[in-house]
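User: My instructor asked us to take a sequence, write out its structure as tokens, and then describe one feature of it. I'm not sure where to start. Here is the sequence I was given:
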Amino acid sequence: RLIEEYRFLAQCHVTDYYTENLWQTLPADWRTTLESLSVADALHLISLSKDPTAQLDFLQRQGAVSPSLSHFLQQLATLPLPRKPPVAPTSTQGRAETAEGDEGAWCGFKVGEGLTR
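Assistant: Let's start with the prediction itself. The structure tokens for your sequence are:
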């Protein structure tokens, strides 16, 4: 049911927020919550994207979470979705492994590591 209700979020690309004005399709109370955050707080919220429970805790500490966004994040946290991206195999591994305990890894690279590996 959650996926059906928020299909418009699941099936969009980040550029659609600009080209299709998807920001206006978000519930008004979500927009109010998100607009109340400072740039630093918004970036921190994004950094917690793998953990909806942590996002909700953060928003509650800011005193900025709407009831419907809170409900959405609570429901999202119950879904059995993978929360860590796979890491690309290296020549010594020979197989893909999960990024358990390797925060910041994506496609075999760590943030700031660059592509010259």
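For the description part of your assignment, you could build on this observation: The first strand starts at residue 86 and ends at 87. Try explaining in your own words what that tells you about the chain.
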